[in-house]
Design a protein that fits this description.
heterodimer; A: five-stranded antiparallel β-sheet; B: seven-stranded mixed β-sheet; four-stranded antiparallel β-sheet
Chain lengths: ~110, ~120
């Protein structure tokens, strides 16, 4: 993988259901991976900073895992709520300090 | 309040008219970066700065200049704007270089239209 890819591009989830999505990145030249939450008409806000293979981070109902050897990270949302509707971005930080964002997963929570 | 500010928030200009978008942070952050957001393309890094007087090109630096004379400010300069620079621009900062341990804080964005 040469780019940072996120899937799916868009997701509709019923309120109360759990969901997850993926960020794939180059396994070489890895320095860190960030997850951001971006609500419409606002600025991206950080969720997690992940650096070590096997890292697991959790914030409330949202958690993330990291596999640097195979080049992927999963973001999980448990018991989706309307306020979870947003675009979720992952950012791959390279060893030369450049930052490459994925195109995001747009999450819609259905009432 | 800890924040990243950008000015102006909205700008409509014409091709070739030099402009500067300012970015300032009050958190004593070392790392600052500019991004542009275009539909279907995601956030792309234009330039970044590890510290005062240290700047580097990101993925899409053509047509832009930056400077970092003071730690808090990181202006983005478009010497001769063209319509393909119409975009939503974000400035961001983080405590340390590269984001190994620290997340980025984003400004509110600048919507630029070049006619």
């Amino acid at each position: 993988i040469l780019n940072v890819e996120q899937s799916p591009q868009s997701l509709h989830v019923q309120e109360g259901d759990s969901t997850n999505f993926t960020c794939s990145f180059p396994s070489s030249n890895f320095y860190a991976l960030h997850w951001y939450r971006w609500e419409t008409a606002k600025s991206p806000e950080a969720l997690f900073v992940m650096t070590l293979n096997g890292d697991e981070k959790k914030k409330g109902r949202i958690s993330a895992t990291l596999n640097t050897k195979e080049g992927y990270s999963y973001l999980y949302i448990k018991g989706s709520q309307p306020e979870d509707s947003a675009t979720y971005l992952c950012a791959f930080i390279r060893r030369d300090d450049k930052i490459i964002f994925g195109k995001g997963t747009r999450l819609h929570i259905l009432p | 309040e800890a924040q990243v500010t950008q000015n102006p928030r909205y700008l409509i200009t014409v091709t070739g008219k030099k402009l500067t978008v300012t970015c300032s942070q009050n958190m004593n952050h070392e790392y600052m970066s500019w991004y542009r957001q275009d539909p279907g393309l995601g956030l792309r890094q234009i330039y970044y700065s590890m510290n005062v007087e240290v700047t580097d090109k990101g993925d899409v630096p053509e047509g832009y200049k930056v400077s970092r004379k003071e730690k808090r400010n990181f202006p983005l300069i478009l010497e001769s704007p063209s319509p393909n620079q119409t975009s939503l621009y974000f400035c961001a900062s983080s405590l340390s270089a590269g984001g190994r341990y620290n997340e980025q804080f984003f400004g509110p964005g600048t919507r630029l239209t070049v006619l």
